[in-house]
Write a structure and sequence with these properties.
InterPro entries: Adhesion_dom_fimbrial, Adhesion_dom_fimbrial_sf, Adhesion_dom_sf, Bact_Fimbrial_Adh_Pro. With about 180 residues, the protein is an alpha+beta fold. Helices cover about 15% and strands about 30% of the residues. It is built from one helix and nine strands. The strands form two sheets. Strands 1, 2, 4, 5, 6 and 8 form a six-stranded antiparallel sheet that branches.
Length: about 180
């Protein structure tokens, strides 16, 4: 009986030591290398997206594959707009974030569906010509005290691999209005 009590005590001591050692190794294995802080604002004061802007279709037309001879070549630029109204005074600027299936070769572009290959759809800010990266915020358009604003963009085909093969090249993106 004494021998069994000693074995139980030894087992308890060894078990406790094993738990303590494993917690030390776990702590060192999950040591942090840095910190990320997330900040933001949730608001109920937003602009109204015009009914004509909620389901846009931009026809990029028919373009020759020869116009997309090198990676980065762009063709077929068409302007499209997102119209906002009834913006509250607390909104000083608005922009858009486009989200869709990114192109495998050039993730800043929208991938196309259809039979054409080597091509994606690029969106740019119409005012500055700067590129809008898919999944990122566009430039903000100031309201300057107005309650209505139009966000203007250009969509165009861009070669992502050569040769670009002929065929249909469609794409779709959802957008969210972003505010300052």
């Amino acid at each position: 009986m004494i021998k069994q009590a000693l074995n139980n005590k030894t087992f308890a001591t060894v078990s406790t030591a094993a738990v303590l050692l494993s917690s030390l190794f776990s702590a060192s294995a999950s040591a942090a290398d840095g910190t990320v802080t997330f900040n933001g604002i949730i608001t109920d004061q937003t602009c109204t997206v015009s009914a004509t802007s909620t389901a846009l279709t931009v026809d990029l037309g028919t373009v020759g594959s020869a116009a997309l001879a090198a990676v980065g070549d762009r063709v077929g630029g068409k302007t499209f707009s997102i119209e906002l109204s009834a913006c509250p005074a607390s909104v000083t600027a608005a922009g858009a974030r486009f989200v869709g299936n990114p192109d495998a070769a050039t993730p800043a572009l929208l991938a196309t569906t259809g039979t054409a290959t080597g091509v994606g759809v690029r969106i740019t800010n119409a005012a500055s010509g700067s590129d809008v990266v898919i999944g990122s915020d566009s430039e903000y358009t100031p309201l300057n005290g107005a309650t209505d604003v139009t966000l203007n963009f250009i969509a165009e085909y861009e070669a992502t691999a050569v040769p670009v093969t002929a065929g249909t090249a469609d794409s779709t993106a959802d957008f969210s209005v972003i505010y300052q």
